[in-house]
Structures are given as C-alpha cells and as structure tokens.
Amino acid sequence: MDLEEDVYLLIKQLPNDEKFALISQIKRSSISIPSNISKGAGRNSKKEVRLFLGIANGSTSELETQPILVHR
C-alpha cells in the first residue's frame, strides 16, 4: 500500500505526454502487486498461494523497470 502511494507521487511528476502510455502501465503493475498478494492469501492451497505471489513478484520486477524507462 505504501508502494502504491509512492507510485502515485512519482506519476504526478511525469510529463503530460506520458499520461496515456507509461503512466497507465505503472499504475497497473503497482496495483497488481498488493492485489495478487491478497488474492493468493485468500486461496486454499499452497500451490495457489505461490502462483499469486509469483505473479506479484513479476509485477514488482515490471514496476522496478518502468522508472528506468522514464529516466532514459
């Protein structure tokens, strides 16, 4: 949740021409992280928990890459 707040602060600093592409992707990946952790926690098997934690981890990697793109 704290990450989500930080992401929204970062987005406010980006140029207007990024609002429809990269900003949208940053929001989706950042929202995906806690959503998939929550989804996994609500599942009935360890296999499903691991699946959703893996998806959240992938979204984390994606989100780490996006500020690098912004900087470049």
UniProtKB/TrEMBL annotation:
Pfam families: 23S_rRNA_IVP (PF05635). Gene3D superfamilies: 23S rRNA-intervening sequence. SUPFAM superfamilies: IVS-encoded protein-like. InterPro entries: 23S_rRNA-intervening_sequence, 23S_rRNA_IVS_sf. Transmembrane segments: none annotated. This is Four helix bundle protein.
